[in-house]
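Sequence in, structure out.
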Amino acid sequence: MPRLTQIKETKKGRLALFLDGEFAFSLDEDTFASAHLHEGDELEDWQVEDLRKQSDTRRALDKAMDYLSLRDHAAGELYQKLCRKFDGPSAAYAVARAQELGLLNDADFARRRAAELLRKRKSRREILTDLSAKGIDRDVAAEAVEALYQTDEDGEDPELATARTLVERRYAAKLAAGKREQVAAALARRGFSHAIIREVLTETEN
């Protein structure tokens, strides 16, 4: 049965536990206090494992708060990032807790992210792909993009306007050199539909 031979405060304010003379893991102050631990205590294996899980869960939550303090995240994106450092249950707990605290809202995140990508002249397909990679639900992503691509007051299609700006700023020289097919291929790789490509290239011929 492992013996708790030393308890040492770390520079980050956690309590490092040493079992049988070797460092095992650290606990946050709240978890440590609720466990009522003292040097010399003998712990059952299940107690050690339970404390280790509590440690991982709290560390995952702390890391989630660090990520969210830097920028907004989608729930799925946050979970994926946490899983790189913690096990699934610990990551899931941290995400759920962040949602309870009102720090995660996938619908709001999707709208802001989609608008940001449109400003960067991304196509509809590129935006949907990006939102999917962030862990946004397909229906939530589709709703955000559809709202973004509503025809504006002047009757302008935002995706057509995006493609037109790209052509003007990046591909004008190629068009002037007669490389129409290369420009069409480049726009297709960016995710623009054939209809949009055809329309914007037809405009350049007029």
